[in-house]
Every structure is written in structure tokens, then in C-alpha cells.
Amino acid sequence: MQIEINAKKRETQGTGASRRLRRAGTVPGIVYGAGKDAVSIELNHKELFLQFRHETFHASILNLNLDGKKEQVLLRDYQMHPVRSEIQHIDFQRVSATEKIHVKIPFHFINQDIAPGVKLGHGIVNHVMTEADITCLPKDLPEFIEVDLIAMELGQTIHLSQVKLPEGVEFAQLAHGSDAAVVSLPVPRGGSDEEETAASAAGGEAAAPAAETKSEG
Questions:
Q1: CA triplet 146, 156, 196: central angle to 5 degrees?
Q2: What is the pTM of this model?
Q3: What is the mean pLDDT, run by run of 10 residues, along the chain of 217 residues?
Q4: Is 212 inside a domain boundary?
């Protein structure tokens, strides 16, 4: 999915100028990197927000049309209004086709409802991580990473090393020796259904002699 955003160079600087831009429906920002000078930019808030609200905007190579000249960039930072759904400031980093990038990518968990530990064991999946740091060349950047839970049992945990990655992509944490947990399926409190059934049966057997003793009296 190709996302294009339009921007123009921002001539005015400073807090007051930025405040005036926001009142006029414009978002101040900056684009930097790839060995070029940083450039202050401004973007139409309405147009930007239509793209910004989609997950792919936050983890994709974006085509920035800056005064008619296109550059490939990544979203690097942004500031939101503390109350309203308004972008206050936004930062983009230029990318080079030959240099690896470091990006946070969301996890998409599939087959969660039919995992044995959920469907049969009535467990509740715990998403330990919802996104992960990856490194790859821009051409290999995925929009998300899929984690299949179809075989997940009660008490099981899936770590980064068990997640299948697209060609050319690697987890930054794993490369540094940290095999973090991604998702777990704890045994419910009180145990599984089988344990509860066994406990109920044992309780019933223990109660029978007590009832007989009472009737003899």
C-alpha cells in the first residue's frame, strides 16, 4: 500500500508561528536524515489525519511530496493535543534504499479464538507485546507481523524466536540476545476444566460418607 502525503516548506519558525499554523488547520513538522539538511515543513491537518489514523501510516515507507519533489520517509515522532484528536507536530526521517532501517511494527494475532487452550481450555490470551522493533531494508518492510495461535495450548508462551518473519527482516531484540515473550496463554485460576471436574467428583465422594453418618444418628 503506497501512502502519499503532501507538504510544503515552512518559512516561519518559533512557538508563536507554530501556534498560528495550528489555528489555521496546518501541522508544523520536520523532515531530516539521509545525509541531507533538515527541512521545516507544514501539512494540511485534515489531509494528514485521514492517513495518520490508519495503522499502516505508522509502519510503512511514506511518499512525501514536498513542494513537488518526492522523497521516501518514515514517521519518526509526533505530538498530539492533550484533549482533542489533533496532531500538534510531526517528524519524518528520509530513508535510503541501501541502508537498513529500524522500525516498530505491529503484531497481528490470528486464529486466537480457535486455539486449543482458548476453545477447549477456556484460557484467555495475554498479548505481552503488541509491536516489535525490527531491522530491514526499506524494500523488505512489512506492514505487520503475523503470529498464528492455532496450536497454542494452556500454559504455553510464544517467544520472538518462534515467530516467522518475512525474508530480510529480523527482530532487533533477538539480534541482541533478548528472546522476549510475545504472547502467553496462562492456565485459568482454579485450573482447567478437567481439573475442576476431577475436584468436583472427589468432593462428591467425600461428602457421601458424611451424609450416611448423619442419617444413622
A1: 130
A2: 0.77
A3: 89 80 92 93 96 93 94 95 94 94 96 96 96 95 96 97 96 94 92 48 45 43
A4: no
